[in-house]
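Recall the central idea of this unit: under ordinary conditions, the amino acid sequence of a chain determines the structure it adopts. In this exercise we apply that idea directly, starting from the sequence alone.
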Amino acid sequence: MSQNEEKKICGIVMPISTLDGCSEGHWSDVLEIITEAIEESGFEGNLVSNADDVGIIQKRIIQNLYENPIVVCDVSGKNPNVMFELGMRLAFDKPTIIIKDDKTSYSFDTSPIEHIEYPRDLRFSRIVDFKLKLAEKIKATYEKSTTDTTYTTFLKHFGEFKVAKIDKKEVSGQEFILDELKNIRMGMRRLERNNQFNKDLLRYRDAFEYPTSDEDMDYCLSDFSSSEIKKAIDVVSGHPAVLSVEFMELEPDHKHLRLRLRDLKSKDEIEMLLRKISPKGQRNRHVDIRKNV
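Accordingly, the structure predicted from this sequence is:
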């Protein structure tokens, strides 16, 4: 492939959040490994949930599952969303490569398809071999799918089926703009509902879930600058009477420090230290809010 040629997209389907004892950081490392292998094969890796345009995420995923020339799917941990998206891709009968870690068992329905394994512990020497295998498999699979008229990923192994397709229609520029504005308006309404819900939740939490405790100190940092907040946390964390420090952002521009103290006598001393950092700071703002609920 020449440098002037635009790289084709290789879609990626995989877990991205904590699953089967593996953290988000683990899946981030796996994504980097898969992406490197894809790039070595001459493609550009992209999660099927990613897109340059703004739109409904489910629509975006389906569109990418249908349009991407080839897709790599990691079924490690058997995440339900991953398995569903794999099923859709196989229903389109388009080039698909399945990978999994060595701790995940095979699924009955997809076991006839070759799976490329990698070590869950991501041991370097075995990962190097895995990346080479995956890169070669991507190149070979794509080449076969574009040159062999009888190529099939899955369906035709079991009989004659009509492959699912996504119908497309041409629309005028005006129709497209109106459709996008409609999507944006719907998104804004969802945000407004979510924001109102969060505000109501915070009012409820302020009113009922933050009673003053003899062992806790709650200090409002709403008038503190970012540097003052950092200084405040450093000061109270180093105080001998402080057992623990919790920083909370109840809502935008409404931040609190909650302290667990060894004794009550230290409250006034700690409050004086905080007032020196920012004399504008006020204590227990949520008490005032609770009075108005």
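Residues 208-214, 283-293 have pLDDT under 50 and may be disordered.
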